[in-house]
Amino acid sequence: MESKQFQLNDIVEMKKQHPCGTNAWKIIRMGADIRIKCEGCQHSVLIPRKEFEKKMKRRLVEADPQ
């Protein structure tokens, strides 16, 4: 199975919708755990990388390479 590609500051779509009504999340921290911030209500969540890779559907917006 192909591993999903993502990097810091990407906006990704998760499989389940957030209670505020949006699926778009911005990756704001990466490591063993990944912190994502809801683009709708700005709520942030810290989840283990393995769980994040399982729950992530696709990348919506790729971060600008610097």
From TrEMBL:
This is DUF951 domain-containing protein. It comes from Psychrobacillus insolitus.
